[in-house]
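step: validate -> pass
step: tokenize input -> pass
step: predict -> running
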Amino acid sequence: MTPNLLTDTPRPTVAAHALRTKAELRTALEAPRRERLTIGLVPTMGYLHEGHLSLIRAARAECDLVVMSLFVNPTQFGPNDDLNRYPRDEERDLRLAGEAGADLVFAPPVEEVYAPDASTDVEVGGPLTGVLDGDPGRRGAEHFRGVTTVVAKLFNLVGPDVAYFGQKDAQQAVVIRRLVRDLDFPVRVEVMPTVREADGLAMSSRNAYLQPDERERATALSRALVAAERGAHAGSLAEGMEAARAELASAGVAPEYLEARDAETLEPVERLGARPVLVAVAARVGSARLIDNVLIHPTNVPNT
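step: predict -> pass
step: emit ->
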């Protein structure tokens, strides 16, 4: 790693500075690019929690310069989604981002990202965006079209060497990796482990919607995934999925989906084999739509 004054001096625990325009961002990145510093990007929609902060810390440990985006992307929200009430607290986010090690925070208004007459989308087609969250009866492929469009714009603006995403959004990570491969972005995608509360609930900005009783019921998602993994190791994937369904039912949680998929292709899987299996769940608890997943690896697992 190249020594530089930006990262080799003690970091004050102060709020990160927000850059509002693409021009400001490009100007801020001119010198680091000239010096060939390694740039890490952490895309977020804000309302930071420990999961986001773990991504910033991972980038800080590996990169010379850490850029975090803070942008609630309207194009990935459907007409029945929670765009208008999505939690926001920019002052807190800037403080936490700075403390975790972000050097720059790109926090633009919507009109800075999308021109009024914008007519170009970036889309990963095929089965990766047509199942699970992308199923037409759920959020739909347009959700991922919004994700891949904004991520492609961030890659073009920031020019990162490494981009950091969380495993909780497993399908999103698969789609981003395909985007990078198909469009030859010179970016390494790092997918970091899901960060959980002490009771197993996956950290999410949408957890703020949960009432106390709903918060307790929501832990059924992580318990169901533990049951799926245990059942798959002890017997078969089918037994694990049945145990997961029973765990959700016992908490009164009706899943939007609970499916076993190949971790790379997202094709349906009925038994364990030589490749990792992604067991993914989505459910609405109260007004919060929550997702979670577990990767079941083939090591020492019978082919059943």
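step: describe -> Strands lie at 18-19, 39-44, 65-70, 104-106, 162-166, 188-192, 255-262, 277-285, 288-296.
step: cleanup -> pass
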